[in-house]
């Protein structure tokens, strides 16, 4: 008898666009671990191998953290340089951005020209002093041309080399972490192209950020390094522990928030998050943040561009244009660049705009946002700790109009930008819109306090003649509220914003903003932007946080339904190799129930399609006497073959590739229990039987998702198949 129960390397792997079986993967990992413990007694080398296996988890997250921090630092440097190239270049040192070029004479004015070393394009072409209109026109034209070149190049690279590099990546990473297989999405080409095109896309001044792409890039690093360790590379469930840590590192380098990154991975993207993954995720995020700070891309010894501290207490998817992705990018970029340049707050990078909006006005601040009619510098003292409330000046009045126009433009263009075929992130655009709104409200409240000092709302908190309102803090809270409304993040959002501001005393207003924004957002729909994109793309994501409230039964969902073809099954004995090969060739099912016989229909186990294919190929390769008419037995003991000629077919035993304990429910099991089983255990298939174990049908994860979609009055056929 040919025994094909030996370990086959590819047994247990999955095809593209398939769902993993979490229980099976964890069972395989426990078996591997027991084998390592048993073999440690054989030799000193086996002991060392066991120790290497034990600490490989820490090693792989260390490598991921190092790679993620390095990639983020380089991306930040290149992004800043490309963003400033649209406005000009540093004389004699073209590789420096505007801030580095003007290090000794930096101005806080966002529309300022910087310094004598920094040359605008009009100056370089010799038209700076000839005509004011011509100077503005040359700078305007080259701003638009540069943006179009950057965006077109990014779209072209994505389309030609790595289509998966477009978009944010967070919805897909979330789907992958739930157990879905998307081959190539976290591959080397995706990592390379996304690392190149993310700075190009951000520098084109499209209403997008690099924070979402950084999570995707870090996850690519996690996937690549996981394959260096068989413990993680050959087990899809263990690999997702590394990917969870990588997602935490991505948020850590995006915002300089290691703790917030861990909570983001736990709250927003991870499906399975054991305690050891929590510690490793924190270590990975901390390593990435340390590397980013060592690179110091912002030149301020902080992890983020808009690190702020306050001293006061707080009292298109289906459009015709979408069929032409490069043209779509060019059109959106042209509109964005043409409308952005006249406004100094949309002309600059979104992160720089947020940095301006969240700053507190002080004696050294001389931009329009701090242009009040009275100076905060007095002849008798140089710095006023608590400056008096003063009415707004002409510069601030102009800035408020510009911010109002920027709010309208950013709010509209972000909707059209998110989803085009370049790397796009939604964190910074959302925070930018919220920061503008918050700053406007903050200035408004400040002036109300000035004009109505005796109002009961603030009379007891604000002393007469002194300011108790910080518009920059309003901008920060507004940024948190908008981002929370878009993503439905709560705890992780508050921690990220806390790490940004560095002030523990602002936890309460940030918590209030996050909670109220979530409540308001939930009033319009329970899903955040990433869940919405998962649904639009048809990914089979079963949210383990959602509750199933309907009263249907398993028999209402299982297949076959009444009128369908009978269920395709495998008999325990009596089938030949040819029968199984014909079964695989003529069907597309991912697995087959194994029964005793067609007469009894009693369930024995479940056999996955890929395992059957690999076992048959392995049997043909190892034994030339395994022929099409060889009998196949799925039993522990097979009958002894009769003596015959040397070329007679030998029986084949495939007992060990059968799952003898599949998750099974009865036909009257409520679907709320079935949904809990699928979401909490992470299984991909469940068999349905009568109480006598007679097989009735099967339920797959996609059947459950289709059923939920149908009950929610959505298109059940939108769930992605193979």
Proportion in β-strands: 5-15%
- CATH class (first level) name of the domain at 320-326 and 345-537: Mainly Alpha
CATH topology of the domain at 320-326 and 345-537: Clc chloride channel
Largest sheet: 4 strands, mixed
Number of strands: 12
Query: Based on CA inertia axes, which overall geometry fits?
Result: elongated
Broad structural category: mainly alpha
Mean pLDDT: 84
The level of helicity is 40-55%
Q: What are the segments in which pLDDT stays under 50 over at least 5 consecutive residues? A: 4-8, 107-112, 375-384
In DSSP terms (H or I, runs of 4 or more residues), the helix count works out at 25
Going by CATH, the homologous superfamily of the domain at 320-326 and 345-537 would be Clc chloride channel
Determine the N-to-C terminus distance: 36 Å
- For the biggest β-sheet, the strand order reads 1-9-8-5
What is the correct CATH architecture of the domain at 320-326 and 345-537?
A: Orthogonal Bundle
- Oligomerization state: single chain
**Nearest-angstrom radius of gyration?**
31 Å
Question: How does this model look, in words?
Answer:
With 722 residues, this protein is mainly alpha-helical. Among the domains are: 320-326 and 345-537, Clc chloride channel (Orthogonal Bundle), CATH 1.10.3080; 554-718, Roll (CBS-domain), CATH 3.10.580.20. Helices cover 52% and strands 6% of the residues. It has helices at 22-39, 44-85, 98-101, 121-124, 132-161, 170-177, 188-203, 211-226, 230-233, 236-255, 258-269, 275-295, 325-340, 344-347, 350-357, 394-417, 427-451, 471-487, 491-501, 507-524, 529-537, 577-586, 609-622, 671-681, 701-711, and strands spanning 2-3, 88-90, 118-120, 570-571, 575-576, 591-595, 603-608, 631-633, 652-653, 664-666, 685-689, 695-700. The strands form four sheets. The chain has a four-stranded mixed sheet with strand order 1-9-8-5. The protein has a three-stranded mixed sheet with strand order 4-6-7.
């Amino acid at each position: 008898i040919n025994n094909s129960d030996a370990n086959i390397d590819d047994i247990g792997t999955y095809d593209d666009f398939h769902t993993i079986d979490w229980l099976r993967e964890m069972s395989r990992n426990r078996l591997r671990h027991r084998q390592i413990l048993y073999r440690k007694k054989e030799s000193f080398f086996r002991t060392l191998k066991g120790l290497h296996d034990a600490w490989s988890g820490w090693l792989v997250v260390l490598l991921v953290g190092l790679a993620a921090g390095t990639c983020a630092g380089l991306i930040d440097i290149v992004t800043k340089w490309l963003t400033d190239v649209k406005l000009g270049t540093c004389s004699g040192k073209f590789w420096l951005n505007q801030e580095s070029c003007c290090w000794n004479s930096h101005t806080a004015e966002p529309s300022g020209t910087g310094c004598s070393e920094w040359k605008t394009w009009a100056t370089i072409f010799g038209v700076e002093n000839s005509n004011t209109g011509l100077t503005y026109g040359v700078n305007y034209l080259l701003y638009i041309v540069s943006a179009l070149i950057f965006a077109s190049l990014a779209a072209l690279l994505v389309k030609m080399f790595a289509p998966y590099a477009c978009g944010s990546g967070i919805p897909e990473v979330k789907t992958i972490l739930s157990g879905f297989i998307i081959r190539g999405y976290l591959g080397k080409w995706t990592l390379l192209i996304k690392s190149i095109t993310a700075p190009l896309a951000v520098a084109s001044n499209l209403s997008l950020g690099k924070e979402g792409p950084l999570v995707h890039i870090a996850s690519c690093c996690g996937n690549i390094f996981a394959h260096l360790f068989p413990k993680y590379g050959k087990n899809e469930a263990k690999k997702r522990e590394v990917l969870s840590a990588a997602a935490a590192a991505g948020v850590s380098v995006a915002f300089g928030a290691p703790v917030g990154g861990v909570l983001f991975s736990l709250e927003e993207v991870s499906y399975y998050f054991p305690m050891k993954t929590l510690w490793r995720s924190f270590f990975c995020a901390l390593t990435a943040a340390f590397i980013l700070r060592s690179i110091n891309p912002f030149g301020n010894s902080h992890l983020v561009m808009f690190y702020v501290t306050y001293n006061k207490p707080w009292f298109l998817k289906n459009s015709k244009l979408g069929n032409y992705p490069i043209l779509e990018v060019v059109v959106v970029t042209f509109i964005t660049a043409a409308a952005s340049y006249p406004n100094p707050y949309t002309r600059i990078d979104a992160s720089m705009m947020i940095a301006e909006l969240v700053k507190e006005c002080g004696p050294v601040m001389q931009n329009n946002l701090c242009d009040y009619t009275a100076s905060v510098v007095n002849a008798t003292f140089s710095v006023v700790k608590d400056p008096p409330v003063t009415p707004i000046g002409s510069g601030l009045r102009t800035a408020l109009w510009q911010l109002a126009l920027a709010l309208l433009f950013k709010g509209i263009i972000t909707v059209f930008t998110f989803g085009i075929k370049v790397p796009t992130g939604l964190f910074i655009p959302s925070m930018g819109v919220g920061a503008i709104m918050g700053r406007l409200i903050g200035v408004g409240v400040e002036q109300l306090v000035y004009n109505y000092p005796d109002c009961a709302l603030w009379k007891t908190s604000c002393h007469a003649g002194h300011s108790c309102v910080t518009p920059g803090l309003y901008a920060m809270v507004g940024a948190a509220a908008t981002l929370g409304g878009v993503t439905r993040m709560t705890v992780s959002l508050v921690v990220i914003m806390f790490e940004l501001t560095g002030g523990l005393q602002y936890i309460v207003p940030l918590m209030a903003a996050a909670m109220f924004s979530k409540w308001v957002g939930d009033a319009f729909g329970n899903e955040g932007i990433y869940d919405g994109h998962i649904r639009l793309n048809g990914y089979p994501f079963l949210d383990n946080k959602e509750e199933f409230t309907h009263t249907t039964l398993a028999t209402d969902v299982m297949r076959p339904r009444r009128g369908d073809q009978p269920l395709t099954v495998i008999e325990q004995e009596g089938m030949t190799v040819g029968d199984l090969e014909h079964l695989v060739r003529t069907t597309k099912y991912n697995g087959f129930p194994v029964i005793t016989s067609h007469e009894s229909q009693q369930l024995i186990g479940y056999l996955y399609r890929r395992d059957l294919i690999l076992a048959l190929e392995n049997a043909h390769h190892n034994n030339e006497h395994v022929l099409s008419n060889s009998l196949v037995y799925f039993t522990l003991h097979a009958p002894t073959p009769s003596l015959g000629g040397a070329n007679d077919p030998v029986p084949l035993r495939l007992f060990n590739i059968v799952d003898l304990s599949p998750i099974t429910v009865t036909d009257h099991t409520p679907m709320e229990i079935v949904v809990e089983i699928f979401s909490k255990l992470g299984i991909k298939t469940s068999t349905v039987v009568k109480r006598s174990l007679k097989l009735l049908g099967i339920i797959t994860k996609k059947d459950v998702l289709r059923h939920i979609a149908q009950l929610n009055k959505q298109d059940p056929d939108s769930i992605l198949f193979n």
